[in-house]
Amino acid sequence: MLCKQCKLHKENKKNFPNHVAIIMDGNGRWAKKRNKIRTFGHKEGFKAVKRTIKFALQNKIEILTLYTFSKENWKRPKLEVQSLLKIFLFALKSEIYYLKKYNICLKVIGDLTSFNNELQSYIHYVEKITFSNTGLILNIAANYSGKWDILQGVKKILTAIQKGYLNINQIEENTFSQYLSTHQLSPVDLVIRTGGEKRISNFFLWQIAYSELYFTDVLWPDFNSYIFQEAIDYFSTRNRTFGGLVQDEKKI
User: What is d(CA 61, CA 57) in angstroms, rounded to the nearest whole number?
Assistant: First the structure.
């Protein structure tokens, strides 16, 4: 449940995040603490994903982005990578009914060409059948990196200029944003990272220029509604000036 203070913020939309992005970190360390293999931690992490989506639905968060698999994750042991991709495929197959029932629109961003044909097909299939859903937008960043996103955006812009669709003088911040993989989404308000690390790890490098950042030591499999609520409460206390001044400072 949302606290009374946050309910008030939700009503006027002033200090409540519309778009929350989460860097889900700590599955491997969670498993190691229990003398389990890393794969066990990833499976438990999937349960945390379901709890997180439930919280977002209950509190009417408009967009939830989950950083599930980075381009750098390919450097991990082959068996671990295979396990991560199997869990992703299992989630797509097993949660279709849930997505339909709760009116969730699934979007997947990243370089999907590196995935096998079965996984690519299911991604496109689930995106297609949930396209018209008008509830929570669940945005999954898979085989994604912020640097890749910016580079592919630059390539698209250069192609548009070469074909005469775009003039170089038309390129501004808003123009560039339209060529990123998040062009259909509103700006990220709040970034949550679990696992104790305090870095962005090549996530939304362009998109989170003025996002609020919340770091927690809690490992991802232990992430729950109470911790999510703490992040929301933190966000509600922030005075977001986007580089400007608060009203009182303007009078000085």
Answer: 6
